[in-house]
């Protein structure tokens, strides 16, 4: 009898295998003929991404230029130009369940072979909406693991996946300025001075275009402006030192266009597909479809004063005094629209760059006096207070000439710091003193808090926050899996320290860790359920799946097999 019972189950399909993606190397992987057919429908040759470091291993990549890689490996814009590169190379590597690490290290004398790791083996270099539609259809028809890769900045490794098929958006570079843009379906009198950026535009290009139009666009501030302006940045929320003045990235989007899993090209704004418009603005990249363009409102330019401060605190007492005076200034400064980036990379280094929009040099100096007085007494004190006519000059002065500062193995942990934590400064001080390194980004408060938490899918925790606080692990390549486990333990420990700031709080999906015990709540708060409903509406078969993204809980830890 037992045997019959089992047979009946097999026949009914109840015990059939779970649905798993078709990966490179599996018998189901598309044939040469399949790829030739795809080739005939797209505008560019198919690409075969490789880790860029492979250029230094002639047996892996005989045509590679190792000198080029060694010269440029630590420059973010060069990395963004390579479809096989992640900005942090640890996301190019793959760790098997048995602990074997598959990687391709820049340092060839470490003695490891160069392997493909986490980098998809083939993909489409999209230049048009039709290219994107062809790639989406190809992946959907064959149930491939689809990876949307823009600049590779992602801190959760979401723009790479082993054995996947890549859709590379980097070369979709069109920018259109529209002085009186009307979202489709909006009343004729709802106009914006807007910039429409195609999926591959990066912030340095968007800033050049805004400058050419005499306008300000709210974007990421990073050396070289390498982060994508219309990709993961916006879809995760998008912060800026100008957010306290003008809101998050998602608050500045008036429309976007997107290719969904069905291959349709949709327009979304407050009037059309408004549920998708809500979800994509903060509900996560690589989750609802492939965004083909984003239309941002721009703002009038205005003067600002930038303050750069650095010093080498000689003791923890000095460091604590500096931080105490600094923290006293906030959240009053964010209420006034100020933003800032503070970094304490080691206990003996302190630096901060503050932006005071529409505030004169004298007023800035007066506002900061108690803080500057403590800094002035510290070792190696540097205090520069510089007025700028407008954003672009400021951007060029502080971010225009990037150094070789990217391309390091990096993982982050973070928390949004609610305003009330600043009222009870002692605990915040203790947390900041105990983390190494620590970064505090004053990219919330002000306008970010004034906008309705339910106006966009982004984590509502942003609306109550005054800052984003982060710690990190940065390590040399070539570590053993056991050494990597120690790094992970440090990050988990730091995460628990951060969680103590505001138990049950939230953080920024784009600058976070993979060790969150409750990622749905921490990344999306009480927006999660609605986001999941919208995800399932537009992507019912789960073509778009990324680590910790909405709907990822339906998949196993490899994100390749659906849980039944
Ligand atoms: C050095 C550095 C500086 C940073 N500075 C800032 C900052 O100032 N402000 C800030 O808010 N964040 C910042 N970030 C975080 C940044 O916002 C995220 O890394 C973000 O995911 C980058 O998006 P991307 O499209 O450029 O990168 P990618 O890694 O290529 O993509 C990120 C995610 O978005 C998806 N995606 C990309 N394009 C599309 C598309 N067209 N359609 C659908 N999905 C897409 C990808 O699949 C992936 O899941 C920084 C990161 C780094 C490494
Ligand atoms: C290799 O790269 C270097 C540095 O970018 C460049 O100067 C050189 O011309 C390149 N060599 C070849 C053969 O392309
Ligand atoms: C670990 O697993 C991978 C993939 O199955 C295999 O190639 C490798 O040989 C294994 N390593 C060890 C040490 O067992
Ligand atoms: C490369 O690895 C070797 C062997 O571990 C080490 O001695 C050397 O310092 C490394 N080089 C660089 C540039 O990190
Ligand atoms: C890019 O912009 C130019 C000029 O506005 C336009 O002619 C062209 O069709 C656009 N290309 C795409 C792919 O949208
Ligand atoms: C547009 O016109 C309507 C009707 O005249 C008016 O109620 C609304 O306030 C106007 N909106 C803007 C943005 O001017
Ligand atoms: C960090 O502090 C040390 C010790 O004072 C100093 O030598 C070093 O130059 C500082 N580094 C930076 C980047 O400021
Ligand atoms: C700047 O300040 C002036 C005078 O206080 C004010 O009129 C103007 O609206 C402000 N501009 C911005 C962009 O805040
Ligand atoms: C800033 O204010 C201090 C007094 O608090 C003064 O000594 C200093 O000259 C001022 N600096 C600038 C640049 O105005
Ligand atoms: C934000 O603060 C308000 C008012 O204190 C509170 O009601 C709300 O729950 C908070 N939201 C989040 C996400 O913390």
Task: Give a short synopsis of this structure.
With 564 residues, this protein is of the alpha+beta class. It has helices at residues 2-12, 32-39, 66-72, 76-80, 129-142, 203-212, 232-236, 243-246, 274-280, 316-329, 332-335, 361-376, 391-399, 419-423, 425-434, 447-450, 481-499, 519-524, 528-538; strands at residues 94-95, 101-102, 122-125, 146-149, 165-168, 175-181, 192-198, 215-216, 253-259, 265-268, 290-297, 299-300, 304-311, 339-344, 350-357, 382-388, 409-418, 438-442, 465-475.
What are its keywords?
binds 2-acetamido-2-deoxy-beta-D-glucopyranose; oxidoreductase activity; binds flavin-adenine dinucleotide; about 30% helix; five-stranded antiparallel β-sheet; Uridine Diphospho-n-acetylenolpyruvylglucosamine Reductase, domain 3; 3 domains; 19 helices; about 575 residues; alpha+beta
């Amino acid at each position: 009898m037992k045997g019959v019972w089992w047979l009946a189950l097999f026949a009914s399909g109840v015990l059939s295998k779970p649905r798993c993606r078709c990966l490179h190397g599996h018998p189901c992987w598309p044939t040469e003929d399949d790829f030739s057919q795809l080739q005939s429908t797209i505008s560019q040759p198919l690409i075969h991404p490789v880790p860029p470091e492979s250029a230094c291993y002639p047996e892996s990549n005989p045509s590679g230029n190792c000198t080029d890689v060694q010269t440029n490996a630590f420059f973010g814009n060069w990395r963004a130009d390579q479809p096989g590169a992640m900005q942090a190379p640890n996301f190019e590597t793959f760790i098997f369940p048995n602990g074997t690490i598959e990687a391709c290290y820049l340092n060839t004398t470490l003695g490891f072979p160069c392997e493909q790791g986490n980098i998809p083996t083939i993909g489409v270099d999209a230049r048009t909406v039709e290219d994107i539609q062809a790639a989406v259809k190809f992946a959907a028809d064959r149930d491939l693991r689809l990876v949307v890769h823009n600049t590779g900045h992602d801190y959760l490794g979401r723009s790479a996946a082993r054995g996947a098929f890549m859709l590379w958006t980097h070369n979709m570079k069109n920018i259109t300025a529209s002085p009186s843009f009307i979202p489709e379906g909006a009343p004729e009198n709802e106009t914006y001075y807007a910039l429409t950026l195609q999926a591959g535009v990066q912030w340095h290009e968007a800033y050049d275009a805004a400058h050419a139009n005499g306008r300000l666009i709210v974007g990421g501030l990073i050396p070289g402006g390498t982060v994508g302006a219309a990709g993961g940045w916006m879809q995760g929320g998008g912060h800026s030192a100008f957010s306290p003045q003008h809101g998050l990235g998602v608050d500045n989007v008036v429309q976007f266009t997107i290719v969904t899993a069905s291959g349709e090209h949709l327009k979304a704004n407050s009037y059309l597909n408004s549920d998708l418009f809500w979800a994509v603005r903060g509900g996560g990249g690589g989750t609802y479809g492939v965004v083909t363009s984003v239309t941002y409102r721009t703002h009038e330019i205005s003067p600002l004063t930038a303050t750069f401060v650095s010093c080498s605190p000689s003791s923890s007492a000095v460091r604590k005094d500096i931080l105490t005076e600094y923290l006293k200034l906030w959240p009053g400064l964010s209420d006034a629209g100020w933003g800032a980036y503070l970094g304490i990379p080691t206990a003996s280094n302190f630096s901060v760059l503050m932006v005071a929009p529409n505030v004169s040099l004298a007023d800035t100096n007066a506002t900061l006096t108690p803080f500057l007085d403590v800094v002035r007494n510290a070792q190696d004190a540097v205090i520069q207070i510089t007025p700028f006519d407008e954003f672009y000059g400021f951007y060029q002065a502080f971010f225009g000439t990037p150094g070789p500062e990217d391309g390091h193995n990096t993982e982050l942990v973070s928390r949004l710091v609610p305003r009330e934590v600043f009222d009870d400064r002692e605990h915040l001080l203790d947390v900041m003193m105990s983390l190494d390194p620590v970064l505090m980004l004053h990219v919330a408060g002000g306008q970010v808090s004034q906008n309705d938490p339910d106006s966009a899918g982004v984590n509502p925790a942003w609306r109550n926050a005054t800052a984003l606080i982060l710690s990190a692990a940065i390590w040399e390549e070539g570590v053993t899996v056991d050494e990597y486990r120690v790094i992970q333990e440090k990050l988990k420990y730091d995460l628990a320290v951060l969680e103590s700031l505001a138990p049950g709080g939230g953080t920024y999906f784009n600058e976070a860790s993979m060790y969150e015990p409750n990622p749905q709540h921490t990344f999306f708060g009480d927006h999660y359920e609605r986001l999941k409903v919208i995800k399932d509406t537009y992507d019912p078969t789960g073509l778009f799946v990324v680590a910790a993204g909405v709907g990822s809980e339906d998949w196993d830890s490899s994100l390749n097999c659906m849980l039944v």
